[in-house]
Design goal:
By secondary structure, the protein is an alpha+beta fold. The protein folds into two domains: 195 residues, no CATH class; 158 residues, 2-Layer Sandwich (Alpha-Beta Plaits), CATH 3.30.70.3300. Helix content is 20%, strand content 26%. The protein has six helices and 19 strands. Strands 8, 9, 10, 11, 12 and 18 form a six-stranded antiparallel β-sheet that branches. Strands 16-17-13-15-14-19 form a six-stranded mixed β-sheet. A five-stranded antiparallel β-sheet has the order 3-2-1-4-5, covered by helices on one side. Strand 4 and strand 5 form a beta hairpin. Helix 1 runs antiparallel to helix 2 and helix 3 packs across helix 4. The protein is globular and about 55 Å long. The N and C termini lie far apart (61 Å). It binds three DNA strands through strand 9.
DNA sequence: AGTAATG
DNA sequence: CATTACTAGTAGGTG
DNA sequence: CACCTA
């Protein structure tokens, strides 16, 4: 029953600079923008759905800045049962591809997997060598989901996991992203949201970026959140530091300060706290450091406590299990000056084109690691 | 979604 | 065999 | 300590 067909396809490229077909994973030094897809695969329907025919093809095409995984037969893959792919030599079985995970938007699991594959060249560099936490919604966003830290039993053996003993003594086998196949598998697991640690596996107690989490209550205009983020940028610039901003995927913003992995979490946390105290001093009417929800009023909560080991932040380019399938999207600082900027305009359907246009606006987060003068 | 436990 | 349970728990601030 | 939040 399990037939894996292997076919050579030119390596597609999301940025336009096409390279030689590379069957390998992007982790191998070469062009990080090359999607390691060399596959045409066949899928077959599950028996339970009756004999509606088999042999529909999925196809990956590339070149000229596109990467498409497309279905040959009735366009949205409503009834498709099972599909087998081989990605970078790793075999994955996809199930229930037609299941609507965002029913209101008619977004299926197939669409989610396609999204993960398309953004993988941009998303993976930010996830690689990092512990991941999945938030899964096998029945879609209208039903209850659950977190998953431990790599689940039955997961393919090629998934990379690293055990970590938390202070309470509990050991978690964290999933670590390796290549696009990791994301494709997560997609099939209905992982609608992916979180990542702030420190990489080589320096688990030394975060390589600080996170300034701006968390507005419902009803605060997004432009006000932008205003606070811009003030924070000004403050950090005054210290000679360069920082980057992304949407949370919901209503908030998260400012990343890339760091050399030389400070422990408490040092970073205190630094973020001090910056936030200064911001709060500048704009006390619209921001708060109050931890208790009931004491925040309509103010934007400045959360520095996410800078701690074992805490996670929604990953760059991760979708959110919210109506509209929004995505945590990086922004250009100039965009924050537009009153009409709407974070819900960044979603699964719009991000791939934006990546083609803008590239990875967070690329410098990976390279511009800074030292903080304390 | 997939496995394990329970009835 | 059918159904149900399970899947995160920690970190750190506050009172 | 228990409790709250993310």
């Amino acid at each position: 029953m399990s037939h894996f067909f292997k076919t050579r396809v030119t390596s597609p490229c999301l940025t336009g600079e096409t390279k030689e077909p590379s069957p390998c994973l992007m982790s191998h030094g070469g062009d990080k923008r090359t999607v390691p897809v060399s596959y045409i695969k066949k899928w077959s329907k599950s028996e339970a759905e009756g004999d509606r025919g088999t042999g529909y093809l999925s196809r990956v095409t590339g070149g000229r800045g596109t990467c498409q995984l497309e279905a040959r037969e009735p366009s949205p893959c409503y009834f498709l049962g099972v599909m087998m792919l081989e990605l970078g030599g790793k075999k994955i079985t996809f199930t229930n591809l037609g299941k609507k995970l965002w029913p209101g938007e008619n977004i299926s699991k197939y669409d989610l997997i396609k999204y993960y594959l398309r953004v993988s060249p941009y998303m993976l560099p930010h996830l690689r060598e990092r512990f991941l936490v999945l938030q899964r919604f096998p029945e879609g966003i209208l039903e209850k989901g659950f977190f998953q830290k431990n790599c689940p039993p039955g997961a393919p053996r090629w998934l990379r996991t690293v055990p970590f003993r938390h202070r309470g003594g509990k050991v978690i086998r964290y999933l670590v992203a390796a290549g696009p196949e990791t994301l494709a598998w997560a997609g099939n697991q209905a992982a609608l949201e992916i979180h990542a640690w702030l420190s990489g596996i080589n320096f688990l107690d030394k975060p390589d970026h600080a996170v300034f989490d701006l968390d507005p209550p419902e009803g605060v205009p997004f432009s006000r959140v932008c205003e606070v983020a811009l003030a924070l940028k000004g403050l950090l610039e005054k210290k000679g530091l360069r920082c980057f901003v992304k949407t949370s995927g919901a209503r908030g913003l998260q400012v990343y300060l890339p760091l050399l992995p030389i400070y422990d979490y408490s040092t970073v946390r205190k630094f973020v706290q001090r910056c936030f105290e200064e911001i709060n001093g500048q704009m006390p009417a619209i921001t708060t450091l109050e931890r208790k929800v009931s004491g925040r009023g309509d103010k934007i909560y400045l959360d520095y406590l996410q800078n701690a080991q074992g805490k996670t932040i929604v990953a760059l380019y991760s979708p959110r299990p919210l109506p509209g399938a929004p995505v945590s999207a990086p922004l250009e600082w100039e965009e924050l000056h537009f009153a009409a900027l709407d974070p819900s305009s960044f979603h699964i359907g719009s991000i791939p084109a934006r990546l083609l246009e803008k590239g990875d606006l967070f690329a410098a987060v990976l390279s511009d690691k800074q030292a903080v003068i304390l």
